[in-house]
Structures are given as C-alpha cells and as structure tokens.
Amino acid sequence: MLLGASVPPQALLDAAGRLEPTVIFLWAHSRHTARQDELATLRRHPSLEHTTLVLGGPGWPQRTGGQLLDLAAAVLACTSPILSQRHGSPAQSHLASQYDSSRS
Asked: Which residues pair with 19 in a beta bridge?
C-alpha cells in the first residue's frame, strides 16, 4: 500500500485498519509533517497489533525512533518483518521502529 503526501489522518487509519498491513512506513520530512497524535493512534489501533511501524525522515524526533534517512536502512526496516513472517518467525516488534541508518 502506498499513500501520497498529506493523507488525511483518518484516511490513513481507515486504510490501515482495513488492510492490516505487515509494515507501515511513515515518512516525515519536517516536524510539521510528523504527526505525533497520528502515530499514537496507530500504535493503539487494535487491528494493527501485529503490524510493524517504521518511522523515517528528519521530521521525527529521535525519541520516536525516527531518522531513517537512507534507502538501505528503509528497505531493511520494511522487508525484515515480511521475510520473518514468511519464514515462520515472529515480527521483530509490534508497532515500534527498530532500525536506524547504522544497521545496513
């Protein structure tokens, strides 16, 4: 699932709740686009219990696990949970970003 920039928060929540994706990647180019309330709502959404949430971009504060700034780290963060599921291993985290640009 790919959604463009400036997706209304409710549209993101509705799509995520319906599709129950393995991974959601949220990019924030600036502090203005890093919606903390949206992030908190996704983390509490009951149908996303087994979804890995990956944060990328300079807009996320470091404490949220953001700052995935390079393509290699983003690809690793988004594909690892999918590959783990296919090989019978549990996803590494539940709605938590686990990767940074130092892991590549």
From this structure: none
Nearest to 56 by CA among 76, 41, 83, 40: 76
**pTM for the structure as a whole:** 0.72
Helix (H), strand (E) at residue 56: strand 52-56
Instruction: Kindly write down the DSSP assignment for every residue of 75-104, as one continuous string.
Output: HHHHHHHHHHHHTTPPPS-SS-----TT--
Burial of 102 (0-12, 13-18, 19+ CB in 10 A): exposed
Residue type, 30: S
Nearest alpha carbon to residue 51 among 7, 86, 89, 82: 82
Nearest to 31 by CA among 67, 73, 75: 67
The confidence score (pLDDT) of residue 94 equals 40
Neighbour count for residue 96 (Cβ, 10 Å):
14
Residue type, 49: E
34: tokens are: 């890093």
